[in-house]
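Posting this for the archive.
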Amino acid sequence: MSGPSLEGLVADPNASRELRAAADLFASSPGRWRVLYHNDGDGIASASVAALTLSRLGRSWQLSPLLGVEQAGVDRVLRATRGPLLVVDTGSSFLDLFAAHDRPVIVLDHHVPPGVTPTARSLAFVNPHHWGVDGMTELSASMLTYLFARELLPGAFDLLAFGLSGAIADRMHVGGFQGLNRKLIEEAQARGALTRRSSLNLVGPSLEEALASSLDPYFVGISGRIASARTLLSSLGLPPTAPVGSLGEEEGRRLASALLSQLLTQGARPEFCERLREERIVLPHGGWEANELSRWQNACGREGEPSLGIALALGDPGAHQRARELEARWRGEVLEGLERLEKKGALHREPHLQWFEAPKPDLAGTIAGLALAYFADPLRPIVALAPKGEAVKVSSRGTLWLTGQGLNLDRACREAAAAVGGEGGGHAVASGATIPRGREADFLREAGRIVEGQIGGLHAPPSAESTAVPSSG
């Protein structure tokens, strides 16, 4: 099996070797493949690429979402798997389990691989960190799966649509795509596989609705509040019910200036202020924009219907409308969560981190990331706690600026969770954990201690009235 050269894209020959080894293992393993994927936007996009690739190759497949990065879930899947297994956007923490499995396993993951990779003839592990490519900022799991697809199907450039969807879901577009993500986009543009343009980052049928529903950027006191959006627009002499695309050049500048002033006033960091304008990448697949495709797929996962996001990729005629409905519902729930965090006392500050109680696990990471980007203390990582049964799901978020100062939430979540009888991990900038209910305060204390060792010099102690003990009920 001979795929396209990575010359000009990746200098390290390990990239070609790993992708070729995975392609060879795939070619030698007939039968139905189970695809195990993380149920977030990047995982759904990765599974979309995998499903389309397997279908084009005439292979049968079965999709299994992994709702959390937990060993128990992986164990269940392995016990139920009688054929080969393709694991996307997860798996680096469970290589020993996959190596011991009696069927072929291919793992395509962009998280930092812990420890030494076990060797087994039936295991192929592909990870960009092995090639000097940062999986946190330079290559999403969906883009990695796209590279694997090209190894199997040379010329499958249309699958880049879902590679981009996942990269955007993992927020790799903030500040502009970097590294291998950027090179793959430029390659596709040169081949005429996509077009790019820039515009004001507002989406909706009218200006007032677009402002009121805006999440990224999030405008304190305006997002989620259509009356406030209408008041702002009227004060600028702009018709609130006018279509977003109807603004003239001078009107657009006037609105952008007012919104930039709002973001600066609420304390948004510069890279997030830049989100006022967004690059639109238009894809041949369905004529969609990569940004809207990402919103639909991400919402499907967050609203508990990850398979719908993949059905969208496979061309299910009913999936498009349902995905739009889920995205609208998800957006409303996130807006409500952010509005709650604007209120005094909802966001608690500890000496080296800040935390809040999230309404449900599937919203926690999104709310945490947007709050930190647009109005929370930018010097402290943020942690969301969401009870689920007898456990608590933890989502933590930082910024690339904080990771540049030394923050590593992968280590903080992994070690703090282990200290309280849980498990966790992820990226330096975004990580998660599952811990026993009732151990939240211990987890926060240990995570804060670890973060202090990483970026302790950035913080000033919080005021006494801002601290609280997380509830366990």
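The chain is about 45% helix and 15% strand. Residues 460-467 have pLDDT under 50 and may be disordered.
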